[in-house]
């Protein structure tokens, strides 16, 4: 029998969630006050969960490694958030958002979870607007929408190119309100280093105060990991420098299964690498594909300037190959398209590893509309472009500025050069319908879990999922478990050594703390010759070359051996200076890189075992004649949930995916 | 002026080193060669830190995270200006093409009594979090608010609120101000919520509480020099301070606790 029970409620798809949340066990208000919840991470999922649970009456502690919860990496999300509001009257509905997300995920996500996500999407927008989040408006005062990839409706809400920032600041202000009223204790500049379990049940965490170096024990009746994704395993990604897998990985080693680790999203529109010094890659929002057209020269190795290449010598390859969706195909398809053209010798720029994202066509279109609005007859080309640029600036000004800062080129005058980069990880800790991992009392929310995006996430769905999990799912599903804790606490009331009486004095806390101290001391005493950073770079290269946009059996097999060798070298030759009892960013990073190395091996193992192509996972051995991903629904329509056994040793568990409402089909955007 | 693509720079760096909040600090000088003009300022620091580690010296501690100008974590005071010589960018978005070979670059932490130094270039800005916790929100619990389109908001009001909400909380305004005033930061949040219908109910209480907390944290007063606006990487306007002063006067005169 499978060890995995997804706990998807019975019943019709559109009734599951409504019925479930109306019938699950509740925790009464006075009991909530004695239940402690630890929330690790303060991004959209963490901040929204912590604020909401505190409003409900739970005692909440929030941990983040940044100096303020407002800086969690959700802040950098640019383009928007989806919701099935159908404000545009263009045919949207809960069902259509559900369908688009399942199809976009290449039929590797759970129907029950995704339908719930689509159902609550509308409330998220209402909640954020009520908080004073300034989403974009039309002149009549209504909310504005735009399109994102993989859909044919306009359901994306946005705040210029800073949607993540505005939504996060909304959740952060709700969180700070609870901090101010004493319902949340905020532990900023703290990093979680381990989960503490007693008899297999989560009882708290070990965290390091990053300023003083002090190791701390924290008790909780439940622990929520809202710690984001692990894209930084590739070294270069659009993630923040501090984004890491440590909390999730330590949980994995304590028994939480890791779901679909190889499902990585490579985002098609990022600023290309400029040199060896590169420390991170910068995304140019998918929203730009509303008005930017992607092309390469029709001629190989064409060294002319973009503006010197005439229209008929340009290949708008996405529009050519996918006429129905054009430039707005899903991310995995757009990324592979760019790679295919560059590999075939049509790339542009100095490195030839880039394609153009060109705004001239739509700038002119906007310019002509403006001319009509302003009653300017027979405007000159210059006048049209000038007015058009004003419109483009209003829509994407901050992104264009950012592009210019980084590249030194003006995208209003010349097309942007873009190339795919690691952006998001669909994989993550396996969770059931309640968002609980395979460890009792331990939950994973937002990007940290694997649940809603299958093998490819659609644009503007990450913000939706993070806030759905925090505002509208966990407040209901956490009670299912905590109500049983209330019963336990009552039964153990008179026990002298009960969990409640001992809390962090239980020996399990001391043991976990000592283990983490040992690891830190080990880092500081290896005294090798190479920096932590240099190991991270080498890991990233292995992952990008062999477990990146295209994967094959030989490369993955090599990568596993290379990563194992790298791990040995790391633990014998890394150099970490300074002490444990101070602010020591290099020491923090050593722990994160050690965990990334172990994760990298598992990602390659997962990618190797999945003998099919689906979404972001493209195995070169499995493609259709025209180079599209070829799924194998007979053998691989399951979630791969890996159970940690010992070093380099995992056991595969499978959760079969059942499609009862959507007919599983070859994905087509043609 | 700046340097062109593909060039390399030789630089002298004078960096503030300070063991912790209690220790005395001092400048340390480093020579760097072969710095690509395409590097960001923080990538130049990565190169320096790699060099220090290989030499067996402790790396320079500095705050940074997103490296795309939005998280507000990076906080270097470069040649006497928060976030360096270019207008409208954070340190992470400052690129070495803004410098020329032979330059001496002086790098310090944010200097303000309310932002104590943690180590080297990293400072403690938790005072900002406490100011937001004192009233920088709309008191709505998560639940079932009315449909988002029920209250119409004019595009102008929404855009103006967005302009104020674009603040990234980096603290450059405080670092730039000779009085270490946090007025630009506080006024940005006060303005955002005062401009929107959702913020009206708590409008008066909010400004009173946030200003009181700002004073308690030890930030200085505003003497209208405008250095904050000039150095703000997100273009937050001084008009927000004027608006906050009006809000404060009005609330002080009419709001009974």
Summarize the structure.
Chain A has 670 residues and is an alpha/beta fold. Chain A is built from 18 helices and 21 strands. The longest helix of chain B has 16 residues, at 239-254.
Overview of this protein structure:
The complex is a heterodimer of chains A (670) and B (257). With 670 residues, chain A is an alpha/beta fold. Among the domains of chain A are: 268-421, Alpha-Beta Complex (Flavocytochrome C3, Chain A, domain 1); 505-636, Methane Monooxygenase Hydroxylase, Chain G, domain 1 (Up-down Bundle). Chain A has helices spanning 16-23, 29-32, 44-56, 94-104, 111-130, 163-180, 246-253, 317-321, 331-343, 360-373, 381-407, 462-491, 499-502, 507-526, 532-546, 553-573, 585-609, 633-636; strands at 36-40, 59-63, 81-82, 156-157, 184-187, 190-198, 201-209, 215-219, 222-225, 258-259, 264-270, 293-297, 314-315, 355-358, 416-425, 428-429, 442-444, 530-531, 574-575, 638-646, 649-656. Chain A is globular. Chain A starts with 15 loop residues before the first helix and ends in a 14-residue tail after the last strand. The model of chain A has no long low-confidence stretch (mean pLDDT 96). With 257 residues, chain B is an alpha+beta fold. Chain B has 2 domains: 8-118, Roll (Ubiquitin-like (UB roll)); 125-254, Fumarate Reductase Iron-sulfur Protein, Chain B, domain 2, CATH 1.10.1060. In chain B, the strands form 2 sheets. Chain B has a 5-stranded mixed sheet. A two-stranded antiparallel ribbon of chain B has the order 6-7. In chain B, strand 1 and strand 2 (26-36) form a beta hairpin. In chain B, helix 3 runs antiparallel to helix 5 and helix 5 runs antiparallel to helix 6.
């Amino acid at each position: 029998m499978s060890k995995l029970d997804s706990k998807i409620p019975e019943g019709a798809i559109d009734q599951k969630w409504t019925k479930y949340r109306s019938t699950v066990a509740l925790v009464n208000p006075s009991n909530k006050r004695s239940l402690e919840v630890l929330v690790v991470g303060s991004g959209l999922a963490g901040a929204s969960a912590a604020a909401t649970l505190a409003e409900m009456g739970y005692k909440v502690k929030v941990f983040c490694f940044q100096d303020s919860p407002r800086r969690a990496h959700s802040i950098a999300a640019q383009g928007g958030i989806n919701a099935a509001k159908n404000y545009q009257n263009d045919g949207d509905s809960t069902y259509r958002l559900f369908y688009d997300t399942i199809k976009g995920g290449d039929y590797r996500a759970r129907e029950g979870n995704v339908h719930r996500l689509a159902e609550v999407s509308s409330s998220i927008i209402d909640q954020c607007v009520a908080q004073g989040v300034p989403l974009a408006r039309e002149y009549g005062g209504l909310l504005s929408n735009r399109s994102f990839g993989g859909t044919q409706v306009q359901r994306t809400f946005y705040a210029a190119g800073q949607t993540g920032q505005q939504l996060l600041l909304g959740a952060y202000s709700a969180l700070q309100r609870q901090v101010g009223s004493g319902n949340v204790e905020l532990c900023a500049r703290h990093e979680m280093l381990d989960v503490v379990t007693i008899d297999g049940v989560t009882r708290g965490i070990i965290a390091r105060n990053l300023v003083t170096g002090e190791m701390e024990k924290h008790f909780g009746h439940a622990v929520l990991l809202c710690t984001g994704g692990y894209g930084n395993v590739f070294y270069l990604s659009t993630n923040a420098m501090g984004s890491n897998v440590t909390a999730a990985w330590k949980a994995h080693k304590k028994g939480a299964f890791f779901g679909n680790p190889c499902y990585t999203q490579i985002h098609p529109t990022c600023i290309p690498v400029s040199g060896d010094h590169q420390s991170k890659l910068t995304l140019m929002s998918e929203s730009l594909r509303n008005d930017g057209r992607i092309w390469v020269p029709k001629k190989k190795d064409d060294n002319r300037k973009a503006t010197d290449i005439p229209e008929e010598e340009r290949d708008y390859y996405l529009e050519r190959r996918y006429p129905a969706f054009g430039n707005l195909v899903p991310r995995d398809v757009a990324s592979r398209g760019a790679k295919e053209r560059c590999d075939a010798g049509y790339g542009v720029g100095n490195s030839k590893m880039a394609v153009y994202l060109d705004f001239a066509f739509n700038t002119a279109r906007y310019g002509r509309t403006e001319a009509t609005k302003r009653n300017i007859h027979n405007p000159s080309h210059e006048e049209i472009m000038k007015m058009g640029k004003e419109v483009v600036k209003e829509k994407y000004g901050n992104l264009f500025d950012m592009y210019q800062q980084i590249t030194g080129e003006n995208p209003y005058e010349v097309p942007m050069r873009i190339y795919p980069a690691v952006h998001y990880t669909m994989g993550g800790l396996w969770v059931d319908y309640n968002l609980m991992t395979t460890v009792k009392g331990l939950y994973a929310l937002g990007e940290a879990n694997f649940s809603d995006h299958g093998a490819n996430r659609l644009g503007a769905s990450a913000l939706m999922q993070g806030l759905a999990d925090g505002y509208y799912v966990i407040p209901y599903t956490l009670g299912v478990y905590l109500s049983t804790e209330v019963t336990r606490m009552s039964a153990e009331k008179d026990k002298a050594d009960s969990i409640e009486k001992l809390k962090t004095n239980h020996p399990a806390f001391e043991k976990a703390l000592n283990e983490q101290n040992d690891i830190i001391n080990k880092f500081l005493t290896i005294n090798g010759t190479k920096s932590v950073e240099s190991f991270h770079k080498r890991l990233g290269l292995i992952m990008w070359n062999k477990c990146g946009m295209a994967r094959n059996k030989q490369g993955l097999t090599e990568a596993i051996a290379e990563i194992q060798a790298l791990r040995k070298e790391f633990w014998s030759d890394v150099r970490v200076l300074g002490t444990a009892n101070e602010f020591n960013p290099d020491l923090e990073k050593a722990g994160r890189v050690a965990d990334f190395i172990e994760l990298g091996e598992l990602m390659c193992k997962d990618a190797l075992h999945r003998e099919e192509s689906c979404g972001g996972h493209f195995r070169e051995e499995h493609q259709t004649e025209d180079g599209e991903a070829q799924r194998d629904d007979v053998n691989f329509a399951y979630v791969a949930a890996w159970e940690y056994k010992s070093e380099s040793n995992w056991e595969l568990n499978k959760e079969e995916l059942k499609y009862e409402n959507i007919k599983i089909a070859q994905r087509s955007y043609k | 002026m700046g340097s062109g693509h593909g060039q390399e720079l030789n630089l002298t760096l004078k960096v503030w080193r300070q063991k912790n909040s209690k220790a005395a600090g001092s400048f340390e000088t480093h020579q760097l060669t072969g710095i690509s003009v395409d590097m960001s300022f923080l990538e130049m620091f990565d190169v320096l830190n790699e060099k220090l580690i290989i030499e067996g010296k402790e790396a320079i501690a500095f705050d940074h995270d997103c490296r795309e100008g939005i998280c507000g974590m990076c906080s270097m005071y470069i040649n006497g200006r928060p976030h360096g010589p270019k207008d409208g960018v954070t340190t992470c978005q400052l690129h070495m093409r803004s410098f020329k070979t032979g330059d001496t670059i002086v790098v310090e932490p944010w200097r303000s009594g309310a932002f104590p130094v943690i180590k080297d270039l990293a400072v403690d800005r938790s005072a900002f979090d406490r100011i937001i916790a004192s009233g920088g929100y709309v008191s709505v619990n998560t639940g079932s608010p009315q449909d988002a389109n029920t209250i119409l908001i004019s595009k102008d009001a929404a855009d103006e609120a967005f302009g104020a909400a674009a603040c990234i909380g980096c603290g450059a305004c405080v670092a730039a101000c000779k009085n270490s005033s946090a007025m630009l930061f506080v006024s940005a949040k006060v303005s955002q919520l005062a401009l929107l219908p959702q913020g009206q109910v708590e409008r008066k209480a909010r400004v009173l509480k946030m200003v009181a907390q700002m004073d308690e944290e030890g930030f200085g007063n505003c003497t209208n020099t405008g250095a904050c606006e000039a150095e703000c990487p997100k273009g937050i306007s001084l008009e927000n301070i004027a608006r906050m002063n009006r809000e404060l006067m009005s609330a002080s005169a009419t709001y009974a606790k």
